[in-house]
Write a structure and sequence with these properties.
Elements (H helix, E strand, L loop, with lengths): L1 E2 L2 E2 L3 E5 L5 H15 L16 H6 L3 E8 L2 E12 L8 E10 L8 H15 L5 E3 L6 H9 L15
Length: 161
């Protein structure tokens, strides 16, 4: 079956391993590069958002990769976090590290990663997902809305030096 330009048999969503680390570190730097225009507070040079090796090994984190014809083309993770004490749910899944290589965007890969992360959360008895996205990153916001997310809060900042 062909869907969104690729055969469903060719696409695999699987748990990341330490063998994937080199590609995942490259994805992380591509995410940083894409987000720099939205955040003047990011340090210059190489920075790391994640300890990917630790996340892959953690029991409260599920790191997934999307493979297309044996090439890793996308990633994402969900981490089980404690929720604010005043919310209805005690824990929630926090999504991050959502990345798809530019040549493979628009094929539904990100949505398939999100769906697999949702299923993992449901198996952990988690019923709420959260994520952060820069308010000016309109393409990402539209993609997350298409996946079923809705806007909730806007975080604001002010430099005071």
């Amino acid at each position: 079956m062909i869907l969104n330009g690729f055969s469903m048999k060719q696409l695999t969503i699987r748990k990341a391993t330490l063998n994937d680390l080199e590609v995942l570190l490259e994805f992380e730097q591509n995410i940083v590069k894409a987000e720099r225009p939205f955040d003047a507070t990011l340090q210059d040079g190489v920075i790391h958002y994640y300890d990917l090796a630790q996340m892959i090994a953690a029991s409260n984190v599920e790191v997934l990769v999307a493979e297309l014809d044996s090439e890793i083309v996308g990633s994402g993770y969900v981490r089980i976090d404690d929720s604010k004490i005043y919310l209805k749910h005690q824990k929630h899944g926090y999504l991050g590290f959502m990345y798809v290589k530019p040549d493979h965007r628009g094929k539904g890969i990100n949505n398939q990663i999100i769906e697999a992360l949702k299923q993992w959360c449901l198996a952990q008895n988690i019923s709420e997902l959260r994520l952060d996205v820069y308010s000016n990153n309109i393409l990402a916001i539209k993609a997350y809305e298409k996946a079923g997310f809705t806007k909730l809060l806007v975080e604001m900042r002010m430099g005071i030096s």
